[in-house]
Amino acid sequence: MALDYNHPIDIIEDINLRHFEENYLIPQKPVILRGLLKGTKAYDEWNFEYFKRVAGELTIGVFENREEDLDKTMKVPHRKLKFADYLDLIATTPTDLRIHLWNIFKDCPQLMDDFEFPPINTTFLKGFPYMFFGGKGSVARMHQDIDMSNVFLTQFEGKRRVVLFAPEYSPLLYRYPLNVHTGVNVTKPDYDRFPGLQYVKGFECEIQHGDTLFMPGEYWHYIEYTEGGFGMSLRSLNPHLSKRFKGLMNISVRQAVDWSMRKAMGDQWFETKQQIAERRANTAIRKATKEDSELIPQ
After folding, report:
1. How far apart (Å, rounded) are the C-alpha atoms in residues 194 and 246?
2. Which among 22, 18, 99, 26 is positioned nearest to 64, based on CA atoms?
3. Which of 37, 129, 188, 243 is the most buried (most CB within 10 A)?
4. First vs last C-alpha separation in the chain
5. How far apart are CA 204 and CA 219, in angstroms?
6. Element spanning 271, H or E
7. 103-148 confidence digits (pLDDT tens)
8. What is the spatial distance between Cα 185 and Cα 71, in angstroms, rounded to a whole number?
9. Within the chain, which residues score under 50 in pLDDT?
10. Ramachandran bin of 152, using left for φ above 0, alpha for ψ from -120 to 50, beta for the remaining angles
């Protein structure tokens, strides 16, 4: 049985930015903004050949679809390739190799002239635009962004499938304590091991050239490349101070405590985190079951 992805994601064709701010940014609701970067060089010209000309000689680190270390953020690439060779590979061949969180603009600052930050009333983190590249079949496992920032994810080449879950489902998604990961596989849900998945409801969409998916801070997201391609994320501070503080605590305190406990306890720490996640999920299941029973007429 597949997970429930029946929540619709709104699609806005003619973008009224004030309407976006009032109905999506402030209430933190996902939406697809079609053509947000229309009129920019990036929208019109960014493709595989363009990046081969601009940055093809660079050596880049790539990641594979590995399931080990489920509670860790992937920071060290699994392999290194010449960027031009990598682009040829993902343009023609299914592969799980992907480039994750690459600030290519430090290597090629002229690319910053190819687009403008949208005139949205939000604080964009202009020093941290990131590029993501992947072959057909590559995935970014489900996670939350540790800093709780909003993400404006624009697709330029190929297509990507994105699954989102609201943060209130975190216990039922078996979030590990002190970080932003889970052992749940949303493509092959194991309801015997993770019964809480029966109570979650998510969003599902596919983005292609020119689509910008607004992912609110703290939302869970799983991303699969259904075609080889690439996109860019622009990040902005969460409009809610409580979420900004939570992101700061994640980076400055919780992450450090997590790493310290892992160093001190080894595998036992991961086992402890799994047990805590399971207890929290069981509590959330009991609450959800009680709420469902109260809705049934007596």
Report:
1. 26
2. 99
3. 37
4. 30
5. 13
6. helix 267-295
7. 999 999 999 999 999 999 999 999 999 999 999 999 999 999 999 9
8. 13
9. 294-298
10. beta
